[in-house]
Amino acid sequence: MDNFLNKPIVLNIFALLLSVFLFIQVSDSKLGETARNVISSNDDNVAENIPVELIYDTENYIVTGAPEKVNVRISGPKSLVVSAVTLRDFQAVIELNDPAIGEQKVEVKINNLSDKLTAEVTPAEVAINVQERITVEHNVTVKENKISLEEGYKIEEVTTSPDKVSIVGGKDQMSKISSVIAVLDSKDVISSDVKRDARVVAVDEAGKPLDVTITPAKVSVDIKVTPPSKTVPINTEVSGKLPDGLVLESISLSETKVNVYGKLSVLRDISEIKVPIDLSHVTETTEYQATLNVSKNAEFLSFSKITVKIKVSAIVSKTYSGVPVSPLNLDDGLLASYPNGGTVEVVVSGTETLLNQIQASDLVVTYDAKDLVVGTHQVPLVVKGPENSTCNISNAQMEVIVSKK
Fold first, then answer.
1. What's the predicted TM-score (pTM) here?
2. Is the dihedral of CA 312, 318, 324, 330 positive or negative?
3. What is the mean pLDDT of the chain?
4. Beta 194-203 vs 179-183: how paired, if at all?
5. Tens-digit pLDDT profile for residues 229-251
6. Closest Cα to residue 63, out of 140, 163, 168?
7. DSSP secondary structure letters along 135-198
């Protein structure tokens, strides 16, 4: 036996076996320690912006002040911490069962988190306000002084559709409502009728927005405006000639003034509105509707139609005898005499109405004696009668004897 153990080969085999045994023992010890370290390793990490679920009786209460999101620090075994922060499969909850009315502090709880993990919420407690839920209807108004108008324009009417909204809120906020206004966000300058959407806000007496829910949140605002105006005369613009045998007695309009609406820069250049009248087609007294035309970029008129009446009559003639002849510009030292007596006959043509009003004294017959000297002269006569009449002299010349005084 001793000889066997003393052989070199046997010793080498024995040494090798001993080395393998010691290696295995050491390796098993390190693996066990590593496993124990992995299992027992703890960690913590923060899950940010976790939504907060608010649980309460929404039919009877309104809760304000609760945060929308919180941060949660999670601690525990590293693998579980990593999973929870990554998956975010837990909930942050504020649960109110039979809450008291008024301001109070409540705890934010974490649900559905492994019992091997702990959670620290920031903030852990929050201040909330619990109020009785109230629903009312309220008229919507628009602050007209917040509407930007072009120079000279005025607001005619402002309406909203719908004109009422439903408001839900806590009793404390609802009691502060002073008015419900449609806020126009656009600052554009208005110079015509427009429709715009506006958000609806409930405000207190100081104009501060209140924390309430409004349905609908937006309304349509219809703004009607009136442009600047100017009153100008309506004048006739007569063209053409009446057919032979007719004379114009009068042209009358049912209206003599009209309001013109438009921009101030446009109105400055408008002084009248003209009604064109063509006499060449008039054969008798007539009455018709004429359309007034908006001119020079004005927007509109206060009315667009007027009645035009054109009165005509047949021409008649009347002879006036004994109409005296008078010299013009006769030298003071000279005297004019007339062999035929110094009077003439004048034939006047016009309407019967006019002729009935004319007297012989309304007719003036003259001649120009400026260049006349002592002697006998044949002078051309000039006759003038009332307006709208035509006058003729049977003999357009007269013999005049000029002598010294």
1. 0.55
2. positive
3. 88
4. antiparallel
5. 999 999 999 999 999 888 888 99
6. 168
7. EEEEE-B--GGGS-B-TT-EEEEEEEESSEEEEEEEHHHHTT--EEEEE----PPB-S-EEEEE
